[in-house]
Amino acid sequence: MATFDVHPDIAEAKTISTDFYLDTKHFKDSKEKIFSHTWHFAGNTDQVKESGWATPVHLLEDFLNEPLLLSKDKEGNLHCMPNVCTHRGNLIVEKPCKVNDLRCKYHGRRFNLNGKFLSMPEFKEVNNFPSEADDLINLPVYQWGKLLFTSLGKKFSADVFFKEMSDRVSWMPLNEFVFRPELSKDYMIDAHWALYCENYLEGFHIPFVHAGLNAAIDYGNYSVELYRYSSLQIGIGKEDGNNFDLPKSSPDYG
Fold it and tell me: Residues 144, 166: contact at Cβ < 8 Å?
């Protein structure tokens, strides 16, 4: 993969070459060398509230496009696994359901909710069967509040990936957060992923594009903190706004 350097001093930094955004090879390289190894949001605990629940999820649909499933076994443990049968690759879970075990509808192969192979019709006489290859692979699961994350690779642990951000906003009551569909909007944007990220990570456009946000914060004190694997954008709300009640332990208190 080609090297694209950005000067760490923003006063010296320049936009990287347009080749990064237009070249198909660079796009495929970024998919393999960045997204296939990092951690991704997979779902939330409300999707698998009780033991016996299994829910299909797609990891970066139309990009990585990995069909996965979230499950909670009888012991209450959360699991994230490929949602494809180890026999012929058929999808196992098609919609959220509460079940005793997982069953492929193609040949009836059954798995425990933790991914362990249980049985398959007409295979009793097969030698050296079953083996570990017949189990569903358990991907790592990291829970942050109600949010669930997973990774297809083993490049670095969740403790390393999330530590800086978790330490920085540890006061935030993530367990109390609730998804409100009526307050959510989906935007379909035909853009390179990096352009979208660059737009999100800079706040210069706020006064011109986000009138509501600009009216609610003190834009002069808007700041961005950069970490190894994350960034934190801080908008100081106006006194009459709907703001967080920060604990005294927060570096932003006062």
Answer: yes
